[in-house]
């Protein structure tokens, strides 16, 4: 269970999760030979990727590289044309109840929050556990309030999304994902729609989750988070995984010309 988020200095290399290789668990998310097309556009090209239990994998790359499509394919928000994706040993079903059950194990935090505007903050967090996990209303509310407190927005429980700031809404979205007790949480550019002053409050919560051992796949442009909170950086370009490395190696000694070019542009702005 994640503790209350503590402010973290993303420029301080002593902060953030540090998981030794022997602490990484069994493979949890496995993509093998995954291909995805949008018409004639080959957006994911024979992707092989394994994410282990307890690992934080940050996916970086230029716009249009396939990062978000990769993230969305993992819980079948995007269908794939070939290859396999397994979650904890079970292959993603194509549709139906089996897909809904497996998808419940995969939390998703979107760029645009995707909260239900007509429901209160607490109702947003408890809806999934009640409808999908079949928890009692009382149990779901108790758990929901615990999670809202842990992400620092419990005082907003009776309000509606429009009454909260973007940063608060995104923290609610994280609490909603946690309420399902997922095996892995996918973050698809979770801070890109936020005003700059709200970014760190969301990153603080994400770092706290990482330090608690939550398996996370994070598509982001936040280089500070990638460098200090990831166990591994996956760099994508043109629909392919070009390079994988631990953060220190990637940011100081990237091997591919494509990654070096990306870093030279993004780290000088």
Protein model, in words:
- The structure is a single chain.
- The protein is of the alpha/beta class and 269 residues long.
- It has a domain at 27-113 and 183-267: Rossmann fold (3-Layer(aba) Sandwich).
- Helix content is 35%, strand content 23%.
- The strands form two sheets. It has a six-stranded mixed β-sheet, with helices on both faces.
- A hairpin with a 2-residue loop joins β9 and β10.
- α3 (121-131) runs parallel beside α5 (166-179), α4 packs across α5 and α5 packs parallel to α6 (196-211).
- It is globular.
- The model is unreliable at 1-11 and 13-18 (pLDDT under 50).
Rg to the nearest angstrom?
18 Å
Instruction: For the largest sheet, list the strands in their spatial order.
Output: 6-7-8-3-9-10
Helix content: 25-40%
According to CATH, the homologous superfamily of one domain is P-loop containing nucleotide triphosphate hydrolases
Low-confidence stretches: 1-11, 13-18
Name of the CATH class of one domain: Alpha Beta
Share in β-strands: 15-25%
Q: The CATH topology of one domain, please?
A: Rossmann fold
Based on the coordinates given, report the CATH architecture of one domain: 3-Layer(aba) Sandwich
Overall residue-averaged pLDDT value = 89
Order of helices and strands: EEEHEEHEHHHEHEHEEHH
Count of alpha/pi helices: 9
Number of strands: 10
Q: Terminal Cα separation, in Å?
A: 36 Å
Major sheet size, sense and barrel closure: 6 strands, mixed
